[in-house]
Design a protein that fits this description.
The complex is a heterodimer of chains A (748) and B (102). Chain A has 748 residues and is an all-beta fold. Helices cover 2% and strands 55% of the residues of chain A. The longest helix of chain A is centred in the first third of the chain and has 4 residues, at 113-116. Chain B is α+β, with helices and mostly antiparallel strands. Classes of the chains: A mainly beta (748), B alpha+beta (102).
Chain lengths: 748, 102
């Protein structure tokens, strides 16, 4: 038997070049034997106690690899591939579509590449249909803006991340979900509760991280075409190119159009806007011999939507004979990330834990967003310029300790103008121009400490102190804990604080698509909330692969301050005007409690089952101080997803059933009773995918039962009346949607 | 509501029906082979899964990335081990047969 085993670790093999990975970590699984490669990737490790043994090689930014080593092998050649940076999730065999990550410290639901192909997944808004935790709904029946809800609260309180970099914040928020084509993504991670402080203080209910197709993926061409019954046409392309052993790039392109007007509910209004979108991104990676990584990229998009009554003519805005709306969005983002390793990795007893090398990272980011729109008589224009700069230093000490510390700086410049206009009952027109421009400069200092003990216990405690030019000092403490009882039962808990500045118009874009006056308090404060929660996950030896899981979680979010939007004030403060949206600071309590249970298993080979149930209790004290159920918030959602694939996944069949709970309907119409609820309704989805060599062809149907919300627009027949309102949306606006598409992948 | 209940119930029944299937035995003209393949990443796996199932005579395949093993069931009248090795070669991988003791 060999006394020592030698080998070399290299990075990102393409058919040609490999780069040695300096200071990669190598260890035997289930032992304390661990070494670090030298600067040329070479290593020598003592033989394991017994053969065959599993050797684990890992390097920051690469997917860890496990190698089965037999006694006959004395020289090893290990190649690692650039991969998921957020957490090390290695899924093998048949990939589950949605699953609860076992390794992440915070409760994380992962929607994998397999999950992203389960449905049409035109864009991000459609990627969450198999997730009970997230509900996606329209903000109104005119703009087509989609809003997600997590933990019973608006998506505004979720931090969207693009490979750990904040994205779709500010003015990009209302339409942001349609700005990420699902086909550009490799996976989505949904982390519920107070997360890491490294990405800032804005995460309140959770973080949704998007992992894009990687530059180093050996797929020179990916092409997707999609067409549905409503003539929505979409094309996506991705090209990952390995230019040399150091440089790689990925080009991402998207073009889509919804060219035709539909009015299937016969209310005179288009069910969805007609729209056009072009979206391009280019990302680069440079990996130097010494382990330095450089990543940078740009993204640009423009989108135009037109909506309103069927006979509205876009060339005649503000036409009082036909109500119409136009929205134009332009978005640009550029970023650069540099990661430099400073020292060799420390041998660690604890495998699969936090990185052990010291390294320093710089992240710079610039975003421009412009939204110009009109809704009937109302005009809204917003322009945002945001620049951020972050420095992070990451290191560890001893066997079990690691930490990240850093500095951050953000400059936000918003120019916003709302020309509000409305008619009273006597058709008298009123105008009011509101300027909402503001500049925020925030400088912060932060630290996060991680204690991880033998894959059993992980504790992450973080604190940031930010100085905000408008709101002074903000302290953000957060803590997360993960304890693995037996490898089969995992407990997680988290608690933390979060802040955000409300963008009152874009956060509530739907209020523009109404005949009401908008009344904004002039003392609006920063929104502030605490979120606490915990979860238990059991992994059970059930089913074909002996890997069923049951998971339950509970989260509570309590607001210290919240910016409220209230159209029901006339009900409890009678002299108040009945046709006004009041926007003001929370005075009393506002909270949300969410309970969720998830079950997944593989009852037979290639047959997976996923069931989930969520219950939400969200209440807010509005201006009179009385707690009321937050309107248009699903009390529960239940879902069941079944997937069956034939051998080698030649055919894949997917069926999803959803049951959507009742929501409280706001009483916006003086003629109706209060405390009304929307009906409970089911939605069914099905898709069949056939795999050919290089090409997947899919055909499917959304909303199979053709369920549609009846008369979604209040007073649709009289859009210039003070009671016209299109925000009371709780169900589908579009009927049965049959679609077909194809995906072509060229492998290198 | 009744139709909804029926649909949900049938979905569960459909789920239950698939449970507990026994592994299939080899039929006439069927053979199986396990190869050790020098693949090291998920993309190699994707690449193999994209191409090998569409080779003539391949009936079933399983890729285990941790052990770098690929198990294939094939129709002996349409292909053989050599042809399968060649198919891996075309993709840029070296496949060597692993003898499995029964």
């Amino acid at each position: 038997m060999a006394q020592n085993i030698k080998g070399i670790v290299s990075g990102h093999s393409s058919s040609g070049g490999k780069t040695p990975l300096a200071y990669a970590s190598i260890s035997w699984h289930h032992t304390t034997i661990a070494v670090t490669a030298d600067e040329n990737g070479h290593f020598t490790i003592t033989a394991p106690p017994a053969f065959p043994a599993h050797l684990i090689a890992s390097f920051v930014g690469y997917e860890s690899d496990t190698l089965t080593v037999t006694a006959a092998m004395d020289s090893l050649d290990i190649t690692l591939h650039e991969g998921a940076a957020l957490d090390e999730i290695v899924v093998t065999g048949r990939q589950a579509g949605n699953y609860i990550s076992r390794l992440a410290t915070i409760k994380t639901e992962v929607i994998s590449a397999a999950g992203l192909t389960k449905m049409a997944c035109c864009n991000l808004a459609e990627s969450f249909e198999n997730s009970a935790g997230i509900t996606v709904g329209y903000s109104d029946a005119v703009s087509g803006a989609r809003q997600i809800r997590l933990l019973g609260l608006s998506g505004n309180y979720v931090q969207m991340l693009d490979e750990s970099r904040p994205d779709m914040r500010g003015l990009a928020q209302p339409f942001g979900l349609s700005y990420t084509p699902g086909q550009w993504l490799e996976s989505i991670q949904i982390a519920k509760g107070a997360g890491s402080i490294l990405q800032g203080y804005e995460n309140i209910t959770g973080q949704i991280n998007l992992e894009y197709r990687k530059p180093a993926t050996p797929q020179p061409l990916f092409l997707n075409l999609y067409l549905d019954r409503f003539l929505r046409t979409e094309a996506n392309a991705a090209s990952s190119l390995q230019l040399s052993d150091k440089w790689s790039t990925v080009l991402l392109a998207h073009a889509s159009t919804d060219p035709k007007k539909y009015d299937d509910n016969h209310d005179g209004f288009m069910d969805e806007p007609v729209k056009r979108q072009i979206n391009l991104a280019n990302r680069w990676t440079y990996l130097a011999d010494n382990g330095t990584q450089l990543r940078f990229g740009v993204k640009g998009l423009c989108e135009k939507r037109e909506s309103g009554q069927m006979d509205f003519d876009g060339s005649r805005p503000h036409d009082t004979t036909a109500y119409g709306s136009q929205i134009e969005n332009k978005h640009f983002n550029a970023y650069v990330k540099v990661g430099i390793p400073l020292s060799a990795a420390q041998p660690r007893e604890d495998l699969g834990a936090v990185p052990t090398t010291s390294n320093i990272a710089f992240i710079g980011d610039y975003t421009f967003h412009e939204l110009s729109s009109f809704f009937g008589l109302k005009n809204y224009y917003g322009r945002e310029n945001t620049a951020t700069f972050n420095t992070l230093f990451q290191s560890g000490f001893g066997q079990y300790h690691s930490y990240t510390a850093g500095l951050s700086f953000r400059w936000d410049d918003y120019g916003e103008q709302l020309e509000d206009a409305w008619l009273d009952e006597n058709r008298q027109q009123y105008d009011n121009t509101i300027h909402l421009s503001r500049r925020e400069i925030t400088g912060g200092l932060f630290g996060e400490y991680t204690f991880s003990y033998k894959e059993k216990l992980t504790l992450v405690a973080g604190l940031r102190a930010d100085y905000h030019s408008l709101y002074r000092w903000l302290f953000t403490p957060r803590v997360t804990l993960k304890y693995d009882f037996s490898g089969r039962l995992v407990f997680r808990a988290s608690a933390g604080r979060g802040f955000r500045t409300a963008n009152v118009i874009t956060d509530n874009i739907g209020i523009l698509a109404t005949g009401r006056k908008i009344q904004i308090a002039d003392d609006l404060q920063l929104e502030e909330a605490w979120t606490f929660g915990g979860s238990l996950s059991w992994y059970l030896p059930w089913g074909y692969d002996d890997n069923a899981s049951i998971s339950v979680d509970y989260f509570h979010t309590g607001f210290t301050n919240q910016v409220l939007v209230d159209a029901e004030r006339y009900l409890y403060e009678p002299p108040q005007d009945y046709s006004t949206y009041w926007i003001y600071n929370l005075q009393g309590k506002s909270y949300s409690n969410t309970f969720q249970a998830d079950f997944s298993m593989q009852p037979a080979e290639r047959f997976t089952l996923l069931a989930a149930f969520r219950y939400t209790d969200a209440k807010t004290a509005y201006a009179d101080g009385n707690l009321r159920e937050r309107p248009l918030n699903n009390r529960f959602k239940a879902l069941l997803n079944l997937q069956y694939a034939t051998r080698m996944n030649i055919w894949t069949f997917d069926v999803t059933a959803q049951l959507n709970g009742a929501t409280r309907l706001p009483d916006l119409d003086r003629n109706r009773r209060s405390n009304r609820y929307s009906p409970v309704y089911p939605l069914f989805f099905a898709q069949v995918t056939r795999k050919f060599k290089g090409i997947d062809v899919y055909i499917g149907c959304e909303n199979i039962l053709n369920y549609m919300q009846e008369s979604p627009i209040l007073h649709a027949g009289d859009p210039y009346s003070p009671l016209f309102d299109s925000t009371v949306i709780w169900g589908p606006l579009m009927g049965r949607r049959i679609y077909a598409g194809l995906r072509y992948t060229l492998f290198k | 509501m009744k139709t909804i209940t029926v649909i949900f119930c049938s979905l569960f029944l459909f789920a239950a029906a698939g449970y507990g299937q026994a592994p299939e035995k080899l039929k006439k003209n069927e053979a199986e082979v396990t190869f050790s393949v020098n693949m090291s990443c998920h993309n190699c796996q994707k690449k193999i899964e994209n191409a090998i199932p569409h080779e003539k005579g391949v009936l079933d395949m399983k890729v285990t990335i941790e052990t770098k093993e690929v198990w294939i069931k094939y129709n002996t009248t349409k292909t053989d081990k050599e042809k399968l090795v060649q198919a891996f070669e075309k993709l840029g991988y070296k496949a060597t047969e692993l003898k499995v003791e029964k």
